[in-house]
Amino acid sequence: MTTSPQPPAAPRSGSGRGRRGLAALAGLLAAAVALGVAELVAALVGPASSPVIAVGDAVITLTPEPVKAFAIRTFGENDKIALVVGTLLIVALYALVIGLTGLRSRRLGALGIALFGLVGAIAAVTRPAGGPLDALPSLLGAAAGVAALLALLRPLTAPAPGAGPRGDAPGVDRRRFVLAGGAALGAAAVAGGGGRLLQRRFDVSGDRAALALPAPASRAAALPAGADLAAEIDGLTPLFTANRDFYRVDTAISVPRIRSADYRLEMAGMFDTPRRYTLDDLLGRDDVIERDVTLTCVSNEVGGRLAGTARWLGVPLGALLEENGIRRRSDQLLCRSADGMTIGAPTRNALETEDAMLAFGMNGEPLPVEHGFPVRMLIPGLYGYVSACKWLVRIEATTFDAVDAYWVERDWAAEGPIKVASRIDTPAPLRQFPAGRRAIAGVAWAQTRGIASVEVRVDDEDWARAELSPEVDADLWRQWVLPYDFAPGRHSITVRATGADGEVQTEQRAAPFPDGSSGWHTVQVVAG
After folding, report:
1. Euclidean distance between CA atoms 385 and 388, whole angstroms
2. How far apart, in whole angstroms, are the C-alpha atoms of residue 366 and residue 281?
3. Is the pLDDT score of 278 beyond 60?
């Protein structure tokens, strides 16, 4: 008896490793579709409802203060960019895992994407300024991601040629996968790109450019001749900081965009006659003031750059509070931003600080969007986290006992008066320069008090008094300079300042948390 020879088995159309690689890619492409569709829907709801933005905002809120401080020290004003990039990397890794999981179980893969959509939806609706519609981008994006994942996995589980009727020898239909992958990539690009383009409808740059600022009834003090020493000393910080260079530290990944005509400022709480103001109401007042004020972030390290000066235009804060009949029992102004951020400012400082204002102008132009357009608060003498609420839409007169603002809830000090500070700008640390005579220079500040003197010590020599730039206003920092003959070799330079009230800058080193850094700034330089 003879048997006919069996035909050779058909080759499998994909190895296990190849299928897993394509499955991981499927997860990545599905995530791209989900994010693209979410961006498109966010163009209808609002940029802050985007899952990447919403989750990033939630991460900022939940991050412990030491980690936030590390991020600011490491990335500076690019901390939000770093957060978004980090969030996208985590999403990409998660998507790779989802793709591999979906290869084994489509149901689990779909649930994985649905879970990510749920997280994004919860993050969006629980934002202080969030609402039910803010969940739509994450939910609809997740639905699109699930559909994309299932479509991409289907060619990876196709019956291999020669498989039995049960189709239990899966292979890879590469042609179908390439077509499905191309379609997914195209959909992600079109939806995401279209969403970003459509989100331009929220842009207020044209509205801002069209805003005419009023002439101040009270102008800033005239600058004396030679007020800015930076023109003569290379490396010295200018007296005024250009808007494009002004530091920015806040929690907003997507900054609020408020049109001038839509702006409203609500006064609430412990007022006898609380009012609401439009932007035109504020611009049309007859008590508009112009002042030169240096701002400082509480996160500024000793020698740090999170400080800057601008010429601000606005209305006196104290007068505004008085005309609403603020009650003397109020010791805190709970200021609310358009994105829900709360800043708690001491009522006493708001009433008694002469140059405290609601600002709508900065260095001769309307506030930049990143710096609070249309209106922000400024109270000289206090760190920004308790005095400089941006995108201000509500002032509630209350008490510190009744409510904690955002930063106080995270154990920062409630009031935050600025400490006497000084900084060496030049010579730059660890830079080599020719031996001989060279200017040591920098800035010092003690807002509302002013700077009386600055002293510099090189190595173990006695303290030497530096020359100060002409005094303009107590709220404005002062430049200082000390010509010095450097011998060849390595040198240590230290600076300290004394306020006009006689307070000498403390040598005691302290980190920014919880009420601002302190200590003398020291740099190491090399003269060659």
Report:
1. 6
2. 16
3. yes
Q: Do domains 229-409 and 421-527 have the same CATH topology?
A: no
Would you state the CATH architecture of domain 421-527?
Sandwich (2.60)
Render pLDDT for 287-306 as a digit per residue (tens, 0 to 9).
999 999 999 999 999 999 99
Could you tell me which of 497, 501, 496, 455 has the C-alpha nearest to residue 474? 501
Please provide the DSSP assignment of 9-37 as one string.
PPPPSS-HHHHHHHHHHHHHHHHHHHHHH
Strand 307-316, strand 289-296: pairing: antiparallel
pLDDT digits (tens, 9 = 90+) for 27-64: 999 999 999 999 999 999 999 999 988 888 888 777 77
The residues, ordered by sequence, that sit 6+ positions from 84 with a Cβ below 8 Å of its Cβ are 52, 56, 253
Residues 6+ apart with CB under 8 A from 386: 343, 344, 345, 346, 379, 405, 407, 414, 415, 416
pLDDT in tens, 349-404: 999 999 999 999 999 999 999 999 999 999 999 999 999 999 999 999 999 999 99
Collect all residues with Cβ–Cβ distance below 8 Å to 64 and sequence separation of at least 6: none
Give burial (CB, 10 Å; 0-12/13-18/19+) of 28: buried
Length of the chain: 528
Over 80: is that where the pLDDT of 157 sits?
Answer: no
CA atoms within 13 A on the CB side of 212: 3
Give the pairing of strands 170-171 and 158-159: antiparallel
Indicate the CATH number for domain 229-409. 3.90.420.10
Instruction: Tell me what percent of the chain is helix, strand and coil, each rounded to the nearest 5.
Output: 40, 25, 40
What pLDDT sits at residue 1? 42
**Within 10 A of 156 (CB to CB), how many other CB atoms are there?**
25
Strands in 478-486's sheet, in edge-to-edge order, are 421-426, 436-445, 478-486, 467-468
Assign 344 to helix, strand or coil: strand
The answer on pLDDT for 162 being more than 80 is no
Of the candidates 176, 190, 30, the one whose C-alpha atom is nearest the C-alpha of residue 110 is 30
Q: How far apart are CA 351 and CA 355, in angstroms?
A: 10
Q: What is the pLDDT of residue 160?
A: 52
The CA-atom distances, in angstroms, between 422 and each of 307, 428, 513 are: 11, 15, 18
Specify whether the CB–CB gap between 235 and 315 falls below 8 A. no
Locate tokens 């499927």: which residue? 26
% of the chain residues with pLDDT over 70: 94
- DSSP, collapsed to helix, strand or coil, labels residue 431 as coil
The structure tokens listed for 254 are: 């997507």
In three-state secondary structure terms, 79 is: helix
Angle at 261 between CA 314 and CA 268, to 5 degrees: 65
